[in-house]
Structure formats: C-alpha cells, structure tokens
Amino acid sequence: MKCVKVSLRKRELPSGKITLYLDYYPPIRDVSTNKCHRHEYLGIYLLKSPKTRAEKAVNTEKLLQAEAIRAERELSILRGKLDFLDRSKLKMDFLAYFRNQLDSHDQKWTKVYDHFYNYVGGHCMVGDLNAGMCSGFREYLLGARQLAHPERTLSRNSAAGYWSTFRGLLAIAYKEKILGENINDYLDRIDTVETRREYLTLEELRRLAETPCDIPVLKNASLFSCLTGLRASDVLALEWKNIVKNADGAWCMRLRTEKTDTEATLPLSDEALSFCGEFSSGLVFKGLKKHQMQKPLEKWIKAAGIEKHITFHCFRHTFATLQVAQGTDIYTVQHLLTHKNVGTTQIYADIVDEKMRAASERIKIRDD
C-alpha cells in the first residue's frame, strides 16, 4: 500500500463554528466498494473566536482529540486496516443495536438508552458516532434532567455511572467490530464526588424492626437486606430456588448479582431466613414492588422516629458498616458484598474509624 498523508483541516461553517475534518492524500480506496475517499468529517467543532480561558481550553481539548484520531487513522492505513471506511456498517441503526443490548444488562442500561435516544433525537447511525458526538453526550449527561423527575437534574454520580455504561457499550461495539475504532481512546471520564453513606445504627435497626409497617413484605425485605447486604435489585429478583443448604447443612444463597453480573454463594443466617416466610416457589418476596421502596419506606422510617434520609440502598450500607464495627475483617465483608475491589469495601472501615474517633473525643478531663 502506498503512503498516504493524513492531515487535520478546518472549515468555517455558516453558523460561525469551525468543523474539523481529515484530508487523505492521495485519496484512500475502500476495497469493499472500490470507492475512493478524500475527506472524513469528525463531528468535532471549534469556537471561531474563543474569548474566555474556559472556551480556549475547550478548543484546545477538541484539537487534541482530533489529532489523536488523525494519528490513529494514519496508523490504521499503515497497517492495512481500513475498517473505518466500511460504509455498510456506517449505515447500521445504532439505536437498534443499543436496544438489543438491553435484555442482557440491568435497568441502568435502559435509562442510558433513553437519555441517548433523547440526545440524538431518536435517530443515530453507526456512522454518526465519533469522538465529538460522544463527547457531546457526556456534556448532555452533566446537565440532563432525570427521566422520572424532569424538575430535577441528574446528580454528578448518576451522570458518571451513565457515562461509564455508555462507554461500556462502545467497548462492546468495538469488540464486535460494529465500530471500526475504539472511540473510548478519545473520551474523558466523568469523575464522581464522594457522598455521605447513610446507615442505621444497631439501636436504630432494632427500633425499626419493632415498628409496624403498612406493607409487611416491604418490612421483611428491608430487614432481610440489613442482614444480608443484598441490593434492592437482587432482593426483588430473589427466588426460592436460590436458597439452598451447603455441604455442612447451613443455609446459603446462590445467585448472580444483577449489577455486577457476579456468581456468588453467600451465607444466610437463621434470622435472615426467618424474614423470607414459608418455603415456596417463585419469588421469595412476592408482591414487593420497586415503588414501595420509596414513599412507603419513608413513611415507615419516619414512624420509627429515625430522622436520617434512609433509602433501601442504605440497608446495604447498614449491613456493611455494622459488620465492620463488630470486627468482621474487610476481606470477608468484601466477599459478602460481592465487591470486585477491596478499595470499595474499605470505605465502610473508614466510616467506622470516624465514629470511633468521634467517640474518643467525647470524654475530656479538662475543659477547653
């Protein structure tokens, strides 16, 4: 293959913005169609006259992204890999491809799909995907409204989680050769912010257990989560076939967690099992609905005289924090929570350390 020079060019649009494109000289030929291609528009746009430091920084970042794509294209041509020219794939409906991925992933993927659908206006071909377009979706998420509550914006951490999921989709599409290049190489992550992990103390948990709840199955599922650390999605999906006896005759749960898609065998205490009711078939917590984990849960928490903002997920934090406080080693807690990284579990040890430090400061001999 003869040498091809790939240059980064700019062209001013009627709108006043500047579009970036690649210029191939001589033109490169797509062997599948026998057509030659000279220009490739990247979908990356610059401000014509940036005024502020922030605007200049954005222009610089976009130029770096475009230059990275230019270099990647040049390497691909040198290696004889011209997948990025496959026009048949470029016309493939990317939204349809995205929809087909939803059945094999958790509910978060559906939310990301809905946001991406809104971002692209219900129309997106594979050929529309490039670093500029995907970076635009990143910016969209940082200011997007919640789907269920349009009056609220997405939290920073939700945006980070959705963006990570979308990048996971791009990685799958690249692996399956739907995309001719790994667009993730040109995309920045969204950093999360540390949030307060609320939980119940042992005294609060016992008080909650003694408080009547209008929805008995909600109460049983909540206390079960406090004793097992299961996420809401896994509690909702738990079936009787998942509860078995292990080799030594003790009860355990064998399940695949929905969020991390991890196979796990977790011990089940007699007290936790007692909240499941009589052995049966199908779902363990029959009649439990996701919406009950919101307003009805808040009402029950308030009736127990607990002023903290407790969500169902806080029961998982409760389990982890109480386990560490009672002396369970961090690696055992990591296994019980099915965390892939012990660093995630370490947060609970830090919470306990803070509580111990606060307790040590309460008794003083001298007045300050």
UniProtKB/TrEMBL annotation:
This is Site-specific integrase. Residues 195-361 form the Tyr recombinase domain. Keywords: DNA recombination. InterPro entries: Arm-DNA-bind_5, DNA_brk_join_enz, Integrase-like_cat_sf, Integrase_catalytic, SAM-like_dom, Tyrosine_recombinase_XerCD. It comes from the Bacteria. The lineage of its organism: Bacteria, Pseudomonadati, Bacteroidota, Bacteroidia, Bacteroidales. SUPFAM superfamilies: DNA breaking-rejoining enzymes. GO terms for biological process: DNA integration; DNA recombination. GO terms for molecular function: DNA binding.
